[in-house]
């Protein structure tokens, strides 16, 4: 299945998200039965989940001394699973309606999105993109809003049976709570080299290659929101995929000049934004 142009080289995009949960078995059941991911590998405290049976999209970890998700903290707002088509979104929507699981939705002009929380309160978006030829740009910023979704229109596209997430599903973007919007914006633009592509009240959307966003940051948990404890439910880390070693090297030099933390761990490097959201830089 051909991946859309925004999630392949020469762009930098989100590859995998790793989150902490309170009960691994319970969470795995949710992500299989409600979201439709498959288990790739599972141990006592960790499970790797996939849509295509090969690539890990989401990893769940249960820390030994795990505590529930903390309020008014930085960290994960949601990770966003991108489906290949509107028909796939329709199949997913019908499945969720049939399960009775709580659901929110929004039409963002560039995309149609459904929103859920996992059993621990980790936010999940499942969406499909409209063709990029239909996106409207003004002075380098893409038009986005939150309007009511045409649920009937989405459902009408396909009456196919739900069989879990299609194999062409990828991690589309990540949206994060931060404590200081300006500092985080500087990190993502001057350090990681992302472009600002849209603004919302107390939020900034960033991307590479003209996507509507690979990363979003907000202060909706309050300016100055602290970094959550390491053993708290929520984001552990997420990965950014680079097209090659040169592209990663360039960004690492920018991060060093910016004064961001940077350390090598195996075949990847780890940095974190000013809010403490940890990022793995992979190729």
From TrEMBL:
It holds the Pfam family Glyoxalase. The keyword Cell membrane does not apply. One of its GO terms (molecular function) is metal ion binding. Keywords: Metal-binding. Residues 13-129, 170-283 form the VOC domain. PANTHER family: CATECHOL-2,3-DIOXYGENASE (PTHR43279). This is Glyoxalase. It comes from Neobacillus cucumis.
């Amino acid at each position: 299945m051909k991946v859309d142009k925004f999630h392949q080289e020469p762009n930098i995009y989100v590859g995998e998200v790793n989150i902490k949960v309170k009960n691994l078995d319970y969470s795995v059941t949710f992500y299989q039965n409600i979201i439709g991911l498959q288990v790739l590998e599972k141990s006592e405290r960790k499970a790797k989940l996939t849509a295509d049976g090969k690539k890990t999209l989401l990893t769940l970890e249960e820390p030994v001394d795990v505590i529930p998700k903390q309020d008014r903290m930085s960290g994960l707002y949601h990770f966003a699973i991108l489906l290949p088509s509107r028909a796939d979104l329709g199949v997913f929507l019908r499945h969720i309606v049939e399960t009775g699981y709580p659901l929110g939705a929004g039409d963002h002009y560039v995309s149609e999105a459904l929103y859920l929380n996992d059993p621990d309160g980790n936010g999940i978006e499942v969406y499909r993109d409209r063709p990029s030829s239909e996106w409207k740009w003004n002075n380098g910023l893409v038009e986005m809003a939150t309007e009511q979704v045409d649920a009937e229109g989405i459902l009408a596209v396909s009456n196919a049976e739900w069989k879990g997430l299609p194999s062409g599903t990828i991690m589309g973007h990540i949206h994060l709570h931060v404590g200081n919007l300006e500092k985080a914006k500087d990190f993502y633009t001057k350090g990681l080299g992302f472009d600002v592509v849209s603004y919302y009240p107390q939020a900034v959307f960033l991307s590479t290659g003209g996507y509507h966003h690979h990363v979003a940051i907000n202060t909706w948990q309050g300016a100055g929101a602290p970094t959550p404890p390491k053993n708290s439910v929520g984001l552990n880390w997420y990965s950014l995929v680079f097209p090659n070693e040169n592209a990663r090297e360039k960004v690492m030099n920018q991060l060093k000049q910016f004064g961001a933390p940077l350390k090598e761990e195996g075949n990847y490097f780890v940095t974190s934004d000013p809010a403490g959201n940890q990022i793995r830089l992979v190729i």
